[in-house]
User: What shape does this take?
Amino acid sequence: MIKGSISPKMNNKMNKSLRRDISHIAIILGIFVLMILFFFILKPNYLSYDNIMTILLATCVNGLLALGVSFVIFTGGIDISVGCVMTFSSVMSGIALTKWGFSLPLTIVFGFLVGAFCGAVNGFGVTKMFLPPFIATMAMQMITKGLSLVVSGIKPVYFTSAPGYQNIATGNFLGIQGFYNAIIILIVIAVIAYIIFSKTLIGRFALAIGSNEEATRLSGVKVDNWKIAIYSLCGLFAGFGGLIMSSRLNSAQPQLGAGYELEAIAAAVIGGNSLNGGEGSIVGTIIGALIISSLTNGLRIMSVSTELQSAIVGVVLALAVYFDKMRRKNA
Amino acid sequence: MGNKVIEMKGINKSFPGVKALDDVYFDLNAGEVHALVGENGAGKSTLMKILTGIYSMDSGSIMINNNKVNIDTVRDAQKLGIVMIHQELNLMNHLTVAENIFIGREKKRMRIFLDSREQNEKSSEIFAKLNLDINPNIRVGDLTVAKQQMVEIAKALSYDSKILIMDEPTASLTDSEIEDLFRVVKTLRDEGRSIIYISHRLEELKIISDRITVMRDGRYINTVNTQEADIDDVIRMMVGREIFAVKQEPFTKENAPVALKVENLNAGRMVQNVSFYVRQGEILGFAGLVGAGRTEVARAIFAGENYESGDVYIYGKKVKIKNPSDAVKAGIAYLSEDRRRFGLALGMNVDENISMANMKEFSTLSFINFTKSLKNSQKQKEALDIKTPSLKQKVKFLSGGNQQKLVLAKWLSRDSNIIIFDEPTRGIDVGAKSEIYKLLNDLAEQGKAIIVISSELPEIIRICNRVLVMCEGRITGELMGEEIDQNKIMQYAIKRNISNGRLTS
Assistant: This one.
């Protein structure tokens, strides 16, 4: 295959770069496995079927948000609106179902569209209004937070009129006891996200923009349009999150939402994705989300208070990024 | 002549793949203005960066006041009284003049409170000595560039620097501002300070300098006393005698269709009334000094940057280009002078970079067709002989020459007909250079229209059928066949300066 003269040095370099890509996933997987072992040894119940399902269910909302926000992070951007956009989309679908009389399937699609629309507005702000991604999405965070409260009248919107809505997330998949639908939804959407990332132009251009936006533009790629598409995709994933969230609670809670975006970003970052963009992986993001939920779960089993759990997740976040920096330095 | 304050001997410096300085000599007397001249890439800035501690030399010795010294950091240079005034001024626009002058060495009262009154007074003293009217309490951002430069000079004097290095100080000044600057420079010289004066404007040197040192291709050529020197001689020393043996044949296919025609293009200050054409199969060169507006022309055509007015025709058809995407569709390719910044996604692999401009071709309904893309990349890799262990290799691990070929591969994948090369061999070692030249020739023979922007005159002469010379945003000359030689190009390139006779001493 390889033609022409290649110095041994170059071969060495290639091995290094290949080794790096593999080690990237390997390290976080290693951390994940060690952590699970740690909890398992202390509390063997940790790896019971029921608890595993609980952990996976707890991963769903954050996992979906993290998948979406990962695409934005690949471009070197950031989206801190996903938590509130998630809430807004679920509130809007609640309104559509109860006030406007939408059918259930239409309600669900409508929720997704609301999320994607918010994302598109973010993308518009970033590209056409030249807002820094942090500012554009912070504005969206405040807008959707406020609108959720206004539209709902600061009251939860219940989906009780639609029997079966709760089953979307908490029903058993194929009747398997304890295997929640939400889990299969997360798996399916993660696979779709992986395909979008590795097989389609969105993934390719997200990385290209993050790696070198100007070079991408000068290659004739319509960078603005792709960015709007990527932010919309992120909003769409927030819409998926909204569906799972509201289905689990059988209601849209307008006060919820804030804080979810940071946990999503934390999952992406623990998964080894650089906030500078240009590189990253969807698998990493999913493992990152799993690390957070299994860590929180383990701590809870060990009766660590919620407040302290948060502190420990913070430490893990800092350490994960530190190890990743060291890995890059050595490579 | 006074005694030597600086003597640099046998200075060598290499960067990966390039020998930047080769056994360079330079000396500076007390109380003189010593001009340092040479083409772009002659090694002037590298030498000065060594003197100011920004780079460290590979070998050689520096004597200051007849003592051997080590200059490893900018701080070392400052302690020795050497200060460089860079072309891009290093001032904080939001602070006042006095705050800028005393940055990092603030005058204090009772050790903690800033004493802006004393700072202002000290600054005023310096300005008074230079006979300048600058209010030390004004924000630097509100001053003209010329006054900002004076602030830099005042800052250097506040350190009591004995040696000032000025890099192209007149580049953005008006004639009357230049007169002020010269007056200040002369005041400093008469006080016994020494000034190293880097400039492209050769006619200025007669007025301001005492001696001139010429560098070329990283080597010391000669030092002459300005009074006895002839500017034409200096130009000859700068460009050198040894012109490449190979010279491009004049273009013979006179009736080949015109691929690109530009009429009265205006785009900002750097592109004024530019009109030219290039035929299919022709290699057209754009020569001129750095900052003459050549890159701006390319970017105005390719990306519509700063576009004001003018028409672009591709094969006789008028096109409107607002962004790179339009240009790519029209069949134009642009290889930037800074390929790492504008040409490549360094963190991505060879295949991803080669296919970047043509993803529509390599995808169906947004799904990437990897087989097709890899097949094309493999083809390009073989055609251009890109040395990479695999198509999955990250681009940042390739050498400069291979990176350049990669950018070219990107555009050839797109089958662009008009290719603009901006400094095609910058940062590429000599061996790879001739390979790039051969590629350019092959492409022209295949019927591509090629535009080459280059600051290296031998390169222009070697590869271009026809040469346009630019100076300060305008095309000042066109050369063909036998006419293309270094002296002629240089004369057109500094045309405005030579014809500008308003400067007086």
Summary: The longest strand of chain A covers residues 157-158. Residues 1-17 of chain A have pLDDT under 50 and may be disordered. The CA atoms of residues 23 and 128 of chain A lie 38 Å apart. Residues 60-330 of chain A form a domain with the ABC transporter involved in vitamin B12 uptake, BtuC fold (CATH 1.10.3470).
